[in-house]
Amino acid sequence: MKASLLFVTLLLPGVAAQAQNRLAGQVGDEQRKPLSFANVLLLNAKDSSLVKGAVALETGAFLLENLRPGRYMVAASAVGFRKIYSAAFALNASDGTHQLAPLMAVADAKKLNEVQVSAQKPLFEQQMDRLVINVQSSITSAGSTVLDVLERSPGVTVDRQGGTLSLIGKSGVRVLIDGKISRLPAEALLQMLAGIGASNTEKIELITTPSARFDAEGNAGFINIVLKKNRGDGPNAFGTNGSFDITLGYGFYEKPTGSLTLNHRTKQVNIFGDYSILYDHGWMQLDTYWQTAVQNQLTQLYTTSDRILKRTVHNARAGFDYTPSPKTTIGGLLMGFDNKLRVMATNDSRTTRAGQLIRQVYVVDNEINQWQHLMGNLNLRHTLSTGQEISIDLDYLRYYNTNPHDYVNRYPLPEADRAPLDYLSVRKETPIQSWVAKLDYTWAINTRTKLEAGGKSTFFRLQNNVAVARNQTGRWETDSLLSQNFAFVDDVHAAYAALHRTLSARTKIQAGLRYEYTATDIRSLSDEELVHRRYGNFFPSVFLLRDLSKTSSLQLSYSRRIERPAYNLLAPFVFFADPSTATGGNPLLLPTLIGSLQTVYRFRDSYLLTLNYSRDRNAINRFTLRTNTRENRSVYVPENIRLMQTLSLSFGFPTRLTPSWQLQTNLIGIRAQADAVLDNKAMRVKKWYGSVNVSSTVKLPRAFTAELTGNYQSPFLLGLQYRKAQGYMTVGLQKKLKGEKGTLKGTISDVFWTNRIQTTSGVEALNTVGGWSGIFEPRVVRLTYSRRFGNTGVKASSRRQTASEEERRRVN
C-alpha cells in the first residue's frame, strides 16, 4: 500500500498535500449494497447550510477534500430512497482523513408507489469504448440464437462454414460470455453461440479498443455476450422471482427452444440460476471448388454437399453471492453446457483435367461433433478503505470434445488403382483444462482520479488425439501420416496498471500499460518438440474524451494488442471436409502484433461518427489454398500475412419519423490492404467495401410493436479471401399481454432467402484459385411466449465477471 501511495504521489504532485483535511464515507441501502452515484452534501452542523457537495462512486464511496476545521453533518440522497443524515461530528486540522460511519438509506415506498416508469433501452448504445446492442429491445431476436443476432449486428461478419467471426473487417475477434473469454476452437465457438438463445441474452457489447484491464489477446477486439438476469429495485427486494421463454420455430424443419431463470434473495445471500435447451433441425447446401494450372493443363474440382443438421444444446448456470458485511462479497459460480451436433452429409465431387472428367466420388459423411464444458469460479470482493477495492478470482475450466466422422466413398468411374467402394474413419478426442488466477485493485484516490492495477496467470493444457483409418481392401488400416496425438501447453502471465483522470469538467483521460509473458509448447506423444516459444510484450493504451457541449463529444484512443495462434492452427494435422478437400495446421505460424488508432465524434447527442485505423504485423490468413494435382487434393492451411492495414469509417444515427416510428441506421465503409509473401512471391490485395444495417420500430395500438431489420454487405476482403455481397431482411411483431408480465413475439427471418455466402480464396499469381458457397434454409418462422413471475422487485446478482473473463477463447 505504501508503494502504491508513493507511486501516485510522484505521478500526481499535490495529492499528498491535499489529503490532510478530508472526509471519507460510504452510502448503501438496507441490504448493505452500495448506493451508486448518490448525492452527498456536507452541511454546517449549526445551521445546516451547505458547505460542499459530491457524487458517490459506483461503489457507494465518497471523498470530500480541502475541508476547514469545524462541526459538520452529512446528508445523502438518491432516487427512490429517503434522505438520510449522519450524526454531527467535529473535524479538526490534525485529524487527517476522517472516516464517517456508513450511511444506510431506507427505500421510500411511498415515492415508489407514486411513480411508474415505462421505458425501453434503444437497440444500439454507443459508450466510450464499445457499441452496445440491447438484444431484449429487438423483437426480431425473439426465438433466434446469439449467432443469428451477431449476423445482423453492424460491423460483424459471421463465417459459419469457416468457423470465424470478424469485426469492422478484421478477423481475430475474441468472444466473452459474461466477461469471460471463450477458449473454444473457432468452429466450436460458433457452434456454442448457435446454441445460446437470444431470449436468454441481455445485450451484446462490441469492444474495438479495449483498455489495459482487458487481456491484450485479440486482433479485432472483443464481443461480450451478457446473459440475462432478473433485475429489480424497490423496498421489497427480498424473495424469489424468475422468468421463462418458450419458442416454436419452423423452417424446413422444427426448431423449438426454451429457457428458465430463477433468482432468490435474502438480506445477505443471493442465489441464482438458469437453464435453457435448444433443438435445431436444419439444412444447408455447401459447394466448394478449386482449380490450378500446371503445364498449361487446367485441373478443376467441384463438390456439392447436401447437409442435414440436428443440434441439441443444454446450457445451465448456478451461483451465489454472500455479503457478510457492506465491504465484503463472496461469490461462487458453476456453469456448463452440452452441445451435440449431428450432421448427415451427402457429397458429389467431380474432378476434371483439360475439360475431361477424370474422377467422380459420391461421399456419405456421418459426423458427430459434441462439446462439453464445465466451469467453476470463486470470487472475493472487499473494500479496503474509502475508494479502495480488491477483487480476487479463481477459475477452473474443463472442455471435452469428441468429433467422429464415418465416410463411405463410392467411385462410379473405373480406376485401375482404386476399388469402387472404400471407407474412411476419423476419430478426434480433445480434453482441455485451464486454471486462471486473477487479482484486481482499484483505488479512487479522489473524485477526479482513479488507479487500477492487477495481475493474472493462466495455465492451459490440451491434448489432441486424431486417429485416421482407411478400409480400401476389406481391412481397416491406420493412416500413420494423418493420425496425430500431441499435447499443447500455453501459459500467459500478465500485469497491468491504468490511471483514470478527470482533467476538467469536460475532459477525461485514461492511460494504461499491460505486460504479458507467453510460454507455448506443442509436443507429440513420442515427446518430439514441434513448437517451443517464449516471448514477452508491452501493450500500452490511451483514451482521451472531451465534451464539446452537452450533446457532443470527441474521443481519441490508441491501443496495442496481440493475436496468438490458436492450437488448431499450430498443430500439424489434417482434417477432411471430403476425400479431396481438407484443412490443416501450420507450426511455423507467428503471433500477430496490432496497433489500433480510433476517434469517435458524437453530435446531436446520439449521432456517432467513428474512424478506425489498424496496422497488423504478421496477420493470420486462416485459409490459404494449397493443391496437389498429382493426388487431386486441396488443403487449406493458415499462413502469416506480412502486413494487413484496415481503415474504417462508420456512422450510426437514429431517426424519429413520427412519435411512434423510429429508425436506427448504421453505415460502415472499409478499406483493407494485405501485403503477403507466398512461395517467395510478393503480392498485394486491396479492396473498398461497406455495409448498411437498418432497424425500424413502430409502436402500434393495443400494446403491439412491429420491427423490421435489414442488412447489406458489399463484396469485401477477409484476409486473402474475397467474399461476395450478401444481405437479408427479418420482420417481427410483439404483443405485451395484460399486466405486462407476459409477451408474445412472432418473427420471420431471411424473408427473401438472400442469406447466401460465397467466398473466393487462393492466389491467382500462383495459378491457384478456390472458394466455397453456402445456402441456408430460408424464412424461419418463430413464435415466442415470455413471462415473468414472482416478486419483480428482487435484485439479481451484480457480479458478472470472473478470473477467466478473457480465457475461454484460446481453445480457439
Number of strands: 48
Mean pLDDT across all amino acids: 80
Summed up, the helix count is 6
Distance from N terminus to C terminus (CA atoms, Å) equals 38 Å
Strand content range = over 45%
Bulk shape: globular
User: Which stretches of 5+ consecutive residues score pLDDT under 50?
Assistant: 1-19, 110-119, 230-236
What does this 3D model show about the protein?
The model is unreliable at 1-19, 110-119 and 230-236 (pLDDT under 50). The protein is globular and about 105 Å long. The protein has a 30-stranded mixed β-sheet that branches. Strands 10-11-17-18-15-16 form a six-stranded mixed β-sheet, with no helix packed on it. Strands 2, 3, 5, 6 and 7 form a five-stranded antiparallel β-sheet that branches. Helix content is 5%, strand content 64%. β23 and β24 form a beta hairpin. With 812 residues, it is mostly beta strands.
Structure in a nutshell:
With 812 residues, the chain is mainly beta. It is 5% helix and 64% strand. Strand 37 (607-628) and strand 38 form a beta hairpin.
